Structure formats: C-alpha cells, structure tokens
Amino acid sequence: MSDFLPHPFWNFSLEIYAGEGVAAACLDLQDRRGCDVNVLLFCCWLGASGRPTLTADRLRAILKVSDVWQAEIVRPLRQVRRLLRDKPWHEALPETVDAARRRVADAELAAEHAEQLKLASLYAPPADRDRPIEKRLRAAVGNLGVYAVCLGVVPDAKDRAAVVALMAATFPGLPGEEIARAVGVAVSSSA
Questions:
Q1: pLDDT number for residue 63
Q2: Over the stretch 77-118, which tens digit does the pLDDT of each residue have?
Q3: At what angle do helices 176-183 and 133-151 cross, to 10 degrees?
Q4: Structure confidence at residue 1 (pLDDT)
C-alpha cells in the first residue's frame, strides 16, 4: 500500500475498516442495501473530523460521480475477484488462479483508493477537531442518515446495528450506550 498517495481520509478508512465488526458491517450494508463502502467511510470521516453534515443535494452530486466509478471500475473488478475465488477453474493450476485473484484484488484496492481521493476532492471543508465529540458523532450519524435517504432506504434494526459498529470504531472513546442512542438503538438498562 506504500505506492498509494497519502490522504487523511484514506488513513482514517484503513484504521476504521480494521476495527472490530466494521468490515462485516460495511460488507453487509454493501450487499443488502447497495451501499458504497467508500461513501459509508466518507460519511464517518466527515463527521469525525468535525466537518459540516452533508445535505442530500450535496451527497447526490457526489454520488453521481462515485456511482459511475463504482459501476464501471470497482464492481467489475470485485465481480472478477469473487469469480476467481468462488468458481474453480479445473484446467488451471490453483496457484496461478490465486495469483490472478490477488492481482485483481490489488487493482480493486487501487480503484477504491482513487475513489476515496475523488470523494475528498469533491467535498472537504476545513476540519474542526475542536468541535465537541458528541456533535461530531451526531454529524457522522446524520451523514449516514442522509446517505440512506439518497438510497431510498428506511433503516431497519440490522442497518442500525451496522451503523453502531461503524460509530464504535470511529469514536472509540465514547461509551457504547451513547453511540447506540445517537444511532437510535434502544439501550436496555440492566438492573
């Protein structure tokens, strides 16, 4: 990954995506709801860094650009990578198929990186790290809510659980109950 241009959003994404339950939550939202993982992470990054909450109009404009890249580049690479993983080609040596799959995975990751740099170039007002963490949490959750609206998704319990996992990794210093409340998940009190 050393040949990728450094960027705070990319660094944030690598750190957050490695967090407990985040990859599974992102992939679930991708597969069930058609979310773009990069946009999910972008929504989190904007909020976490103290940037203003996205408007639906601004996010729709951003999605017009990222949706084309996803449709023409990222999803086809993902499809080829999954085919190489899931559909054995008996006429080939497994090592050669695995090597091809790894190269396609590298190309997919490079395409994801390119998309992230483009997302950040489309909307990156100045960060405000002095903004209270509770407001940053609400902004990140709000951004994900705007994304749901843009996708025409009414979040269900599984979606909210995925957002809790994203927020827990994005804001590791906040108590789980506070994150759950911000996401709209009922917090049970144990007696």
A1: 97
A2: 999 999 998 887 778 787 888 899 999 999 999 999 999 999
A3: 40
A4: 45
Residue 51, classed as helix, strand or coil, is coil
Q: Is the pLDDT score of 189 beyond 70?
A: no
Residues 75 and 168: their CA atoms lie apart, in Å, by 28
Q: Which residues of 81-117 are buried (b: 16+ CB within 10 A; e: fewer)?
A: beebeeeeeeeeeeeebeeebeebbeebeebbbbbbe
CA atoms within 13 A on the CB side of 12: 23
Burial class, 165, CB count within 10 angstroms (exposed 0-12 / middle 13-18 / buried 19+) = buried
Could you state, in order of their start, the residue ranges of all structural domains in the chain? 36-183
Provide the token pair at 1.
Answer: 């990954």
